[in-house]
Structure formats: structure tokens, C-alpha cells
Design brief:
Oligomer: single chain
CATH class of the largest domain: Alpha Beta
Order of helices and strands: HHHEEEHEHEEHEHEHEEE
Largest sheet: 7 strands, antiparallel
CATH superfamily of the largest domain: Chorismate lyase-like
CATH topology of the largest domain: Chorismate lyase
Number of domains: 2
Number of strands: 11
Strand content: 25-35%
Length: 244
């Protein structure tokens, strides 16, 4: 690659970014391996990896551990307003929504969860760990706390899904089986932080990629709290959007 006074890794990064923006590399298309790119540009792998790392920081590629780097043209706009829930967000972007229920555990409500759900501290609730997927790709990883005393039968419904892999279901569809026909987000807080080991593994992201985390209280009729969830999204794949 010819020198232009610009660092070689930056030249490579700009070339790849132009190819992504031009459509030569499609959204979610895997980039050639670092060995192939190093041969193409006449540099060593370290230079290529530095370029790709910079593109990841800019949100133009995402790196999946053990699988390589993938082009990101338009991150999913995920609406965290009151009514646009998981399924509507994905269907609106021509993606297939699915969820995998990883674990279902009865536990005592931690203080912050009890407060959010307006329950006595230490009351038993249901903790469900869920991986959300968009057309088979991991999108979010969340700990969902359910006030099961207000959702009779919810534990059995989740246990029937536990460990079964990706399933197409919505919270509202489950809640209706418990006699609750109305559900929406009430309070939403958003944070940015480094991922936990579990988050990085399930979202298939590097340990150095930030996650966007939402803390959400969901309510039913008469604004009675039903759920409290901490859900993490890979920052390279999602833009969180607020609409009220």
C-alpha cells in the first residue's frame, strides 16, 4: 500500500469503511480474514487488526469472538419508549424476533428490585435470564424479575420454555395466559459500561466492547408493576431510541 503521510492502519481502515458505506461489504457480511487483508494491502496482520479495532470503535464493524469481523452499515434502531416492545422493534426492521430462556429461578427480591416492583423487601419473585435474538443473531441479554404473585402461572410458562433454545414468544402473550391483557414500559434508565463475562459470551462480543444497558420497569393495568429488567445490548449493533 502506497504511503500518503497517513498511518497505514488508518489508510486500511478508511478503505474498508468506504467499501462498507458503498455497499461492497453488506450489513452483517463477514470481512475477509486478517491474513487475507494483510496480503491484499501488503502489510502485516498487526496493522490490519489495528485498522479493524479502530473501525469497531467507530461502530462500522463488530467483532465476534472466534468468528471474525462483520460489517455494520446501519445499527438497529431499538425503541425503548412505552409501547414498542421487542417483537415490534425487530419486525419493523424486517428481522425475525426470538428468545432463548436460559434459566428460571425463584429468589428473594433484592432491595432495588423490590422497590421498583413495589414489593416488600425479601419477597419471593421469579428471575428469568433471557437471550434475545434478531434473525438468529444475539441482540440482548437480560435478567428479568417478575412479580409472580401478580402473574399467576407465569413460572410454569417460563419453565416450559427453559433450555429449549430459540422460541418465538412475547411477554404480552404469556401475560395474557395469566389474565393480564395490558403491558407497557413505565420507567427506563440507560447506562453504558463494560460487559460481564456472561454478557460478552452470550452476545458474542469482545470483552472490551461496551454494552448499552437498560433498566426498565414494566407495568400492567392501573400501572401496577409487573417486571423489572436489566438488559444489555451490544453497542456496535444497536442504537437505543426514545419515542413517547
Amino acid at each position: 500500500m502506497a504511503s500518503s503521510g497517513m498511518a497505514l492502519w488508518r489508510q486500511i481502515g478508511e478503505t474498508l469503511a468506504e467499501e462498507i458505506e458503498r455497499g461492497d461489504l453488506l450489513t452483517n457480511q463477514r470481512l475477509p480474514s486478517s491474513e487475507v487483508l494483510a496480503a491484499r494491502f501488503g502489510v502485516n496482520r498487526h496493522t490490519v487488526l489495528k485498522a479493524i479495532g479502530h473501525l469497531q470503535a467507530e461502530g462500522k464493524v463488530r467483532i465476534e469472538r472466534g468468528r471474525g469481523a462483520y460489517a455494520v452499515v446501519n445499527p438497529l434502531q431499538y425503541n425503548v419508549g412505552p409501547h414498542q416492545l421487542f417483537e415490534q422493534n425487530l419486525v419493523g426492521s424486517n428481522l425475525v424476533p426470538s428468545r432463548a430462556v436460559l434459566s428460571v429461578v425463584e429468589c428473594y427480591a433484592p432491595g432495588d428490585v423490590a422497590e421498583a416492583l413495589q414489593l416488600p423487601k425479601g419477597q419471593q419473585i421469579l428471575l428469568v435470564t433471557i437471550l434475545g435474538e434478531a434473525s438468529g443473531a444475539p441482540l440482548n441479554f437480560g435478567s428479568h424479575y417478575f412479580a409472580n404473585s401478580r402473574l399467576p402461572g407465569i413460572e410454569g410458562l417460563f419453565r416450559a420454555l427453559e433450555g429449549k433454545g430459540s422460541q418465538q414468544f412475547s411477554f404480552l402473550s404469556l401475560f395474557r395466559q395469566c389474565g393480564v391483557d395490558e403491558y407497557r414500559r413505565k420507567d427506563v434508565r440507560i447506562r453504558s459500561r463494560m460487559p460481564s463475562n456472561d454478557e460478552a459470551r452470550h452476545l458474542n462480543i469482545p470483552a472490551v466492547e461496551y454494552v448499552l444497558t437498560t433498566l426498565v420497569v414494566g407495568v400492567g393495568p392501573a400501572q401496577v408493576p409487573l417486571t423489572y429488567a436489566e438488559t444489555s445490548f451490544a453497542s456496535s449493533r444497536v442504537e437505543l431510541k426514545m419515542e413517547f
